[in-house]
Design brief:
- By secondary structure, this protein is an all-alpha fold.
- Helix 3 runs antiparallel to helix 7 and helix 6 runs antiparallel to helix 15.
- About 70% of the residues lie in helices and about 0% in strands.
- The protein has one domain.
Length: about 350
């Protein structure tokens, strides 16, 4: 029996954003909720810095990577079970794409962040890691043909200026590259590039499968590389088992809250916005990260944090103003598995 067209498209195809468009009457409300969700995502990722710092008081860097990725995969498995349909059929091309997305956005990203940050000051690390909206805009333009209007470019540049103000002056410190830090810069530069690819490659499959399943499958695949760590690094299980109550709270936050919940919110944002429009919210992460460090860790901040945050907000608003892409309606597991469901309609619209 021949498969319908939606099950025979290659993994590298990019359907148009007109597929599965939400009715105009509810589009405005959908966008407002989306922007609020992405702002919340930035808040959760900002708080992640303080939580990881608490974990690093008792654990080694690779211990934290193991806790975060494998723990998130465990919670995503529970979410899939609660959905009532943990396994949905994937066309071969999409399965290959999700494996690639998981390796790039979970495995490579986490390794680059951990090993790069070990060689660089925190301020410089933040500046490099949160530069990914620029990568996203360029990659999205090359792979999907997303138009880079003057408004978008100006908004991204303005938000980056705000980010630089936050990182350079928000804590009274500086972010300078020393001659002995080039190796760390090169390693850490892989992280924003990986996240940009993760974001852009994820956009097309959102028209065919539920957000939760995409986030779960990619996380589970990406975490597989870290499963052998307890066997390769002695004492890891003992260190994790000896965490304090605060440590376990931080572990819960970096897995269930800032990973599982945040990734789901991020994917739902990608349903409504173009990759470059969603990615610009990443510039808010250091702002919320510094606020969390001030509230929870007692670190110092300066008025420049507010100036930089306001500049980032202006850049986000500018980037997301003007002509908007058609939102993509959320797909349920049942629809994703049927040849006549929205998954097929999305593919047909993308031709």
């Amino acid at each position: 029996m021949a498969y319908p067209p939606c099950f025979t498209r290659p993994w590298y195809s990019f359907p148009t954003e007109a597929s599965l468009a939400i009715p105009p009457s509810s589009a405005t409300r959908t966008r407002l909720v989306t922007h609020g969700s992405l702002l919340l995502t930035a808040m959760l990722w900002g708080g992640n810095f303080a939580a990881i710092k608490w974990l690093l008081e008792d654990l080694e860097p690779l211990d934290v990577v193991f806790v975060r990725t494998v723990g998130a995969a465990f919670f995503f498995g529970l979410v899939l079970l609660l959905s009532g349909r943990p396994v949905i059929p994937l066309q071969r091309g999409d399965a290959a794409r999700l494996v690639l997305i998981g390796i790039i956005g979970v495995t490579v990203l986490n390794l680059a962040v951990i090993f790069g940050q070990n060689l660089l000051p925190a301020a410089l690390s933040s500046l490099i890691v949160t530069s990914n909206p620029v990568h996203t805009a360029v990659i999205s333009r090359v792979l999907t043909g997303e138009p880079l209007t003057r408004r978008k470019v100006t908004g991204i540049a303005l938000a980056f200026v705000g980010l630089a103000v936050v990182v350079l002056y928000g804590t009274g410190g500086e972010a300078r590259v020393g001659t002995g830090q080039i190796k760390g810069v090169l390693i850490l530069a892989v992280a924003p590039f990986s996240w940009a690819l993760y974001t852009v490659l994820s956009k097309p499959v959102l028209a065919r499968y539920p957000s939760v399943h995409i986030a779960a499958y990619t996380t589970i695949v990406g975490s597989l590389a870290f499963l052998p760590l307890p066997l390769l690094r002695g004492g890891m299980i003992e260190r994790i088992g000896g965490l304090s109550l605060r440590g376990w709270g931080a572990a819960l936050f970096v897995t269930l809250i800032s990973f599982v919940a945040a990734y789901i919110l991020w994917y739902r944002g990608l349903r409504v916005l173009a990759p470059s429009q969603a990615a610009v919210y990443i510039y808010f992460v250091p702002v919320f990260g510094l606020l969390a460090a001030w509230l929870l860790l007692g670190e110092t901040i300066t008025p420049y944090l507010l100036l930089g945050g306001a500049t980032i907000l202006a850049g986000v608003i500018l980037t997301n103003s003007g002509q908007q892409p058609a939102p993509i309606a959320e797909i349920g597991p049942e629809a994703a598995r049927t040849p006549t469901g929205p998954g097929r309609l999305a593919e047909e619209a993308g031709k």
